[in-house]
Amino acid sequence: MKKLFVWFVTIVGMVSLCFSEVPRTINYQGKLFESGGPVSDTRAIGYRLYKDINNNHQWDDGTDSLVWEQIPADVTVSDGLFSDTLDFSTGYETGYDFESVFG
């Protein structure tokens, strides 16, 4: 009976691994200062991810290098510190492959 239970648990564990996915959210933490002092307020913060490391925002063929964008949303900032969740399940350009970058 004990062997049967061990096999059952092993098989269930292996099956669950087959159906697991890479999380599509990342917790982002940062500091926000204005005029040399920490901010304590609610601010609309947005995020963008570009293909171009030089931040030129365009490729040689004229296409935009923007890959992902999360529209600004209200984030609570306390003593300059904030935490936000970046949701990578939406906001991609057409045809962008999430798994090739984060998989």
Number of separate domains: 1
SS content category: alpha+beta
How much is the radius of gyration in Å?
A: 21 Å
Percent of residues in helices: 10-25%
Q: Tell me the total number of β-strands.
A: 6
Order of strands across the main sheet: 1-6
* Beta-strand residue percentage: 35-45%
What is the general shape? elongated
- Low-confidence spans: pLDDT under 50, at least 5 residues? none
Elements, N to C (H/E): HEEEEEEH
Please give the alpha-carbon distance between the first and last residues.
Answer: 39 Å
Average pLDDT taken over every residue? 78
Major β-sheet profile: 2 strands, antiparallel
Can you count the helices? 2
Description of the molecule:
The protein is of the alpha+beta class. A hairpin with a 2-residue loop joins strand 2 and strand 3. The model has no long low-confidence stretch (mean pLDDT 78). The chain has one domain. The longest helix is centred in the first third of the chain and has 17 residues, at 2-18. It is elongated and about 70 Å long. 1% of the residues are buried. Helix content is 21%, strand content 39%. It starts with a helix and ends with a helix.
